[in-house]
Design a protein that fits this description.
- By secondary structure, the protein is mainly α.
- The chain is globular, with a radius of gyration of 17 Å.
C-alpha cells in the first residue's frame, strides 16, 4: 500500500512529489484492488505461460550462447533496486559494448531476440516481478539506476507506485529505438528528449489514476502490439 508521507524516502519528500502523493492517497482502495488484480492475474498467467516460456527459453539457448534471462538492475517503488526478469534478446555482453537503451537495427540483438521484441514476448518473465510486488502490469517502466540518478524532482512521483510492464508512455513510445537510431549520443538523447516526453505521460497517468484506466491501458497495449498506432 501507499506509504504515509512521513515514511517516504527523504529524496521523495519534495514539494514536486506531494501533489501526486495526495492524489494517490485518496485512492488507496483502488491501489489495493490494483495489487490484488496484479497478483491473481499474474499467477493465472504463469500457469498458462509455463510451457510457452519453456519453449522460448530452449530456442534462446539454441540461437546464441549466454543465459536465458536478462537480469539488469532496475529501480521501482520508493527507489528500491531489483533485478528485472526478461528473456535475453541480445548477445550476452551487450551492456559492455553499447548503450543501456537500444536503437533500431541494433547489431547486439539476436535473430530470435528480434522476433521476441517485436511481439514483446521478451517481457513474459516479468510475471515473476509482478508476483513479487516489484512490478505491476501498469506503471512507469523501470529505468536503469543511471537514468534515475538524473531524474528531475517531479519524476520521483513515478516511484510512488510499482514499476510497470506497460504504460501510456510505453504505448506512445513503443518505437523509441527508431527515435534513438540517429542520435550521436544515445544515452544523452534518451535522457534529454525521450525520457522527458515519456515522463509527461507517466505523470499524467498518476494524476488521472484509476483502476479502470489501468485496465484500458492493458487493452491499448495489446492493440499497439498488434499494430495500432496511438498519437
Amino acid at each position: 500500500m501507499l506509504k504515509r508521507w512521513d515514511d517516504l524516502p527523504d529524496f521523495m519528500k519534495v514539494p514536486e512529489v506531494r501533489p501526486y502523493w495526495e492524489i494517490l492517497n485518496k485512492k488507496r482502495g483502488q491501489l489495493l484492488l490494483k495489487r490484488v488484480f496484479d497478483l491473481v492475474v499474474a499467477i493465472v498467467l504463469l500457469v498458462f505461460l509455463a510451457i510457452p516460456m519453456a519453449v522460448i527459453a530452449i530456442v534462446i539457448k539454441l540461437d546464441s550462447s549466454g543465459t536465458v534471462f536478462y537480469r539488469q538492475e532496475r529501480v521501482t517503488r520508493y527507489g528500491k533496486h531489483f533485478r528485472i526478469h526478461k528473456f535475453r534478446t541480445m548477445v550476452s555482453n551487450a551492456d559492455k559494448i553499447g548503450a543501456t537503451v537500444t536503437v533500431e537495427n541494433d547489431n547486439r540483438i539476436t535473430k530470435v531476440g528480434a522476433k521476441l521484441r517485436g511481439l514483446r514476448l521478451d517481457e513474459l518473465p516479468q510475471v515473476f516481478d509482478v508476483i513479487s510486488g516489484n512490478m505491476s502490469f501498469v506503471g512507469t517502466r523501470p529505468e536503469a539506476l543511471k537514468y534515475v540518478e538524473q531524474y528531475k524532482p517531479e519524476y520521483f512521483a513515478t516511484l510512488l507506485i510499482p514499476a510497470g510492464i506497460t504504460s501510456e508512455a510505453s504505448i506512445r513510445y513503443k518505437d523509441e529505438d527508431k527515435l534513438l537510431s540517429a542520435a550521436d549520443d544515445v544515452d544523452k538523447t534518451y535522457v534529454e528528449k525521450v525520457l522527458t516526453e515519456k515522463m509527461k505521460w507517466n505523470l499524467e497517468s498518476i494524476n488521472k489514476f484509476t483502476f479502470f484506466r489501468d485496465i484500458v491501458t492493458m487493452f491499448r497495449t495489446v492493440f499497439a502490439v498488434l499494430g495500432k498506432e496511438y498519437y
